[in-house]
Prior knowledge:
Layout: E1 12-21, E2 24-30, E3 40-41, E4 44-46, H1 53-65, E5 69-81, E6 86-96, E7 106-112, H2 127-134, E8 141-142
Parallel strand pairs: 1-6, 5-8
Antiparallel strand pairs: 1-2, 1-4, 2-3, 2-7, 5-6
Amino acid sequence: xxxxxxxxxxxxxxxAAVIEREGRVLVARRRKGDRFGGLWEFPGGKLEPGExxxxxxxxxxxxxxxxxxxxxxFVCSVPFRSPVLNIELLVYRVELLSDDLRPQDHDETRWLAxxxxxxxxxxxxxxxxxxxxxxxxxxPERAGR
Length: 145
């Protein structure tokens, strides 16, 4: 889904959710063996062709965590390029409409205060979001690496 950007290939749009409850944010750890396996991330995923970010994020949260949600305000955009990955991470605030988390792609979920998040424990595309939350800001903006 995207425009060509040199040797890396297509630019993929990927969504992520900042889900807050009582001053804590929901994070999930990728299963070992996956890309970014063993690292924490904000739940979400790749958009399908023609899909709006908000609708794709809601779909991904059902697929990844088994929860219904309400996607709210845009937080930030994080461009990320590496030799194997070329994405734009679109981050939104999200409210869960159900509490029964059933992780499919992750081996653990946690509720962490922004100050408890260790940037290096997160996948590279998610690290600017960790910095943004730790600084107490919430966009909308473009977060850099």
